[in-house]
Amino acid sequence: MPLRGKSRLRQNALAAVLHAIPLALVLATPSTASGQQRAATPSGIAPSAAACHDPAGWNIACLRARYSGPTAGWPAPTIDVGVQWHEWAPVPPVADPPLQWTAANSGQAELAADVARPAIVALGQMLFFDTRLSRKGQISCASCHQPQRAFTDGLPLAVGEDKLMGRRRSTPLYAAPFAPRLFWDGRASSLKEQVMGPLHDPREMNHDAAGAVARLRESDMYPARFLDAFGGATAASSPATASASSTVAPASSAAGSTASASASASASASASAAMIPTAQAPGASTTASAIDADRLARALAAYVASLRPGKTRFDDFLAGRVDALDDTELLGLHLFRTQARCMNCHNGPLLTDHQFHNIGLSFYGRRNQDLGRYEATRDPADLGKFRTPSLRNVAQAGPWMHNGLFPDLRGLLRMYNAGIGRETPPADPPDPYAPRKSEHIKPLDLSPAEIDALLAFLKTL
Hints:
The chain is mainly alpha-helical. The protein has helices at 5-18, 23-27, 47-50, 60-66, 108-115, 118-128, 141-144, 191-200, 209-217, 222-230, 239-243, 259-274, 282-288, 293-305, 313-318, 327-337, 374-377, 409-417, 448-458, and strands at residues 53-54, 57-58, 356-357, 386-387. The strands form 2 sheets. The chain has a two-stranded antiparallel ribbon. A two-stranded antiparallel ribbon has the order 3-4. Residues 1-44 and 237-284 have low confidence and may be disordered.
């Protein structure tokens, strides 16, 4: 049966990448036997990558000895000149002082204070799973960010209210509180700004702050929950103010007491009082007015900041349990750090550099074009760049890439092995808008068995 609609579009998009890859590399049948590695030492590979490799293949006993101690004594990773990288480490627990691990952006101080208050985090969790935040009550934040899927949704592209499809895959959330900028294109400068984006997006929750606040105020449980989490009403508590809070300004309570804030609070209180039915008791008014758009965003942001990936055997290995990884997985770890060049972008506790890179999947000038960060900044240096996702629990977070193009991790690794697609700016005539693929993307010369090992390691993260 011929493909139709979106299925045909996705097949065409994948074909556009595959055409630039040597057929032998794409169709190679991987070996599942960890001992069937190449006999020769890879050419052009840094000495650290070739450590423990002899004419007979990889020496696993040697690798175990090299990785048996603290990370400071491990073989040096393959890092390109100019790359600032961080060694792997445990993910900071929520119990650590939040100012030590939250991203140093404009919302850091407020987020750090909120995530340290259990009542705010618990409120955010309730809101995260509540479909009342969408206009028709069809979806919640958890519809696209499911805990069992590493807080993604398993779909190539996000699907919102009325089954409208977006342009990109639902973003994994584990790195969100650690990232200076959010979304695939970095258009949000804080986590509080990011969590409100889907609410206003017509292809996602298709709602607005004023409508969501009004709905929560009318509920039986939320007024008391907001009052318990945040206290009484603030200057931003009226429906009129909520409507104007599409960008979610910082809470007045975090700015201190000033004359202008007092004046604003008085005006807001008057507006709220004017909208209260005469039969409603003053106490109920105070409770309901504890809900506003800013506090809604703060609660959601605090919950997202509390999310942590489940503990894995990779964490056990980092903690010193040398037998936590089997031979194939250990080889994959070594290849990840060396010959596969993954540490250039996937380093640190979350296995992400929180930066933006063009890996050659912008489809410039073709159907499905997506120029990534450039669409938010209009800076030609950002053409085709997308945020590096965390690889924590990556095996549960497919399909992969910003556009969900790869349904299979092994296929994705083969594409990296081949250097992904060609994305070279034309020289005649020159095109100033043609994206330039990152210099970190190069053919890797991994054997099928080495790709198997790399895949096995990814499944431990």
